[in-house]
Amino acid sequence: MTPISSHQITDLDHFIALRKDLHRHPEIGLEELRTADIVAQELESYGYSVSRGLARTGVVGTLSYGAGNRAIGLRADMDALPILEETGAPYASQTPGKMHACGHDGHTATLLAAAKTLAERQNFDGTVHLIFQPAEENFGGAQMMVEEGFFRAFPCDAVFGMHNDPALPFGQFTFRDGAIMAAVDECTITVTGLGGHGATPELCRDPVVAAASIVMALQTIVARNVSALDNAVVTVAAIHSGTASNIVPERAEIVVGIRTFDAGVRDVIEARIKAIALAQAQSFGCAAHIDYVRSYDPTINHAAETAFARDLAAEMFGAEKAKDFPRPMMGSEDFAYFLNECPGTYFFLGTAKGPNDPAHHHPKFDFNDAAIAPGAAFFVGLAERFLERGRS
Predict the structure, then answer these.
(1) Which of 79, 105, 262, 369 is flagged as catalytic?
(2) Would you say 334 and 181 are in contact if contact means Cβ atoms under 8 Å apart?
(3) Given 27, 77, 136, 366, which residue is catalytic?
(4) Is 79 a catalytic residue?
(5) End-to-end C-alpha distance for the chain, whole angstroms
(6) Is 136 noted as a catalytic residue in this protein?
(7) Which parts of the sequence bind Mn(2+) (predicted)?
(8) Residue 163 labeled ligand binder
(9) 137 assigned ligand-binding residue
(10) Taking the mean position of all CA atoms in its chain, how far away is CA 67?
């Protein structure tokens, strides 16, 4: 079967306009009510069965055709970010302090474009589940959907997710087998001492000095407790303490970010942070309270599904448009939770407009609408090839 091409995506102007409408009305995680309404209305108009309510504002569109019993899941995230937009675009955010600075408006429009073309072509044998996920940025919407029973309600043989990348050449699809994005953990260390007058530190137990020692000791974890063959990052992102030059404060707070790929390394780093904080604080006569939160898991792609997607991208767009990442990225992505439960892969589509495009989460970022057509075509291609009649 010859796969679809980008110019076969129907009603492209509608989806570009829809993307700009979503951009004008951004909604952050778990608040995507208007966005979810639009998604549901669009899907219903194409003939999809629509389910709502997973992760509060999630939407799943299901379409079956033929007699095949295989199913594929295709996912787009919908949420915006709490950032004040500076694009100056005529369709810029009308909600102060919120904007689509990561392109999820484009992801949503792209998957809807794929939805319409899939429904019109009916060129597959099985079931397509289109996953419109809320709250990727901060609240783990994917984890919520999985824990609330997504795969029980919508069993899939494979799941695929895509993200735009303004740092990659336009139209280049980029893949990686195995780990592609890191786990992210957050830790807040509160050091409590005995405050007093800055002129008599000998009568105090200074939490600032203890915190400084903790910060320096944390730098040894990756160098001395993690193999040089593994990847990890421990970042001290903030230190808060004190209000005046003549006061020894009562408390100091250290905020730490941790990125890992391997579960064992993740365990080691958590244990070492706790041990170092407690021991260093005690050595200065202080106490330490550690609030350690495991956030997103690492995003681990499955080999067979990654090869399937890479080969299809090369067939559809040319070998020069299907590349591999040479190494994983330290950023994180909650599509990990879909991949923890089901084979699949997460990949990137280059959307660069020029050499100096604003990066994700920048107040001047704006999704490249020209990427809707190739992105939608690839989603359609994935579904049609995966659910090709006679394929098992």
Answers:
(1) 79
(2) no
(3) 136
(4) yes
(5) 15
(6) yes
(7) 102, 104, 137, 163, 361
(8) yes
(9) yes
(10) 34
25-52 tens-digit pLDDT? 999 999 999 999 999 999 999 999 999 9
Partner residues linked to 62 by β-bridges:
49, 129
DSSP element (H, E) containing 212:
helix 207-218
Is-contact 323 175, C-beta < 8 A?
yes
| Structure confidence by residue, pLDDT tens digits, 90-104 | 999 999 999 999 999
Where do the domains of the chain lie, and which CATH numbers do they carry? 6-181+298-386 (3.40.630.10), 183-294 (3.30.70.360)
Distance CA 91, CA 22 (A): 9
31 annotated among ligand-binding-site residues: no
Residue with tokens 């429009």: 109
Phi, psi values for residue 91, rounded to 5°: -105, 25
Compute the C-alpha angle 256/257/261, nearest 5°: 140
Q: How far apart are CA 373 and CA 10, in angstroms?
A: 9
pLDDT tens-digit map of 123-135 = 999 999 999 999 9
pLDDT tens-digit profile of 189-203?
A: 999 999 999 999 999
What is the Cα–Cα distance from 264 to 245, expressed in whole angstroms?
43
129, 72 contact by CB (below 8 A): yes
Structure tokens at 171: 């139209």
Q: What is the pTM of this model?
A: 0.94
Query: Residues of the chain with pLDDT > 70: what percent?
Result: 99
